[in-house]
Amino acid sequence: MALKSTVYKASLNVSDMDRHYYAEHALTLARHPSETDERMMVRLVAFALYADERLEFGRGLSTEDEPALWLRDYDGSIRLWVEVGLPDERILRKACSRADRVVLLAYGGRGVGVWWDNNRNALARLDKLEVLEVPQAASEALTGLVERGMQLQATIQDGVLWLSGEGGTVELTVRPPGGSSA
Questions:
Q1: Is 123 helix (H, G, I), strand (E, B) or coil?
Q2: Engineered SS bond to 164: which of 66, 154, 169, 176, CB 3.0-4.6 Å?
Q3: Spatial CA neighbour of 46 closest among 36, 57, 35
Q4: Bridge partners, 11 (sequence order)
Q5: pTM assigned to the model
Q6: CATH superfamily of 6-179
Q7: Which residues contact 123 (CB under 8 A, 6 or more apart)?
Q8: CA distances from 61 to 24, 28, 57, 137 (A)
Q9: What is the per-residue pLDDT across 81-121, written as a single tens digit (0 to 9) for each?
Q10: Which residues does residue 169 pair with via DSSP β-bridges, in sequence order?
């Protein structure tokens, strides 16, 4: 018998002063049995960073044809495709052929550097792709905010995200891998 996803509910209040976006989102996150709390919270961070009334979670781990998050236009075209983790380069290439813009939030500490070194040249050819790294200390700290019913406040200013909940506040800034400003 297949294991079922665990359902988490999050009330996410986003105050993005960089984009002048302010909204409350009632989110349902289905955590796949093989997904960690860290990955689920990185997906939530991605939602906060790119929040929009039409941004939605994809089926993620259960299918390669959908991203962690995506924003589809009213005509069905994909405006934004967001992946998290360290996916295979071919997945990102396929995403770039389907979407106007593709963002990868890479996390995993030193593994990000190794992954980046192995894929940098192939990914450089994908002009629709933006690769950003979530610092390891921040991605690990996000797990302290996990609850089945989360009340979260995301404040974004000058490229810095503060995510606050019952378990405290996590501050993070996503940057290109290796800390370069590309």
A1: helix
A2: 169
A3: 57
A4: 26, 151
A5: 0.93
A6: Restriction endonuclease-like alpha-beta roll domain (3.10.640.10)
A7: 89, 92, 129, 131
A8: 26, 16, 11, 24
A9: 999 999 999 999 999 999 999 999 999 999 999 999 999 99
A10: 164
Tell me the two tokens of residue 151: 């009340």
Dihedral pair phi/psi, residue 131, rounded to 5°: -105, 125
- By residue count, the chain amounts to 182
For residues 17 and 165, give the distance between their C-alpha atoms in angstroms, rounded to a whole number: 19
In this structure, are residues 95 and 102 in contact, taking their beta carbons and an 8 Å threshold?
Answer: yes
Domain locations in the chain as residue ranges: 6-179
The span from the CA of 41 to the CA of 147, in Å, is: 11
Q: How many CA atoms lie within 13 A of 43 on its CB side?
A: 26
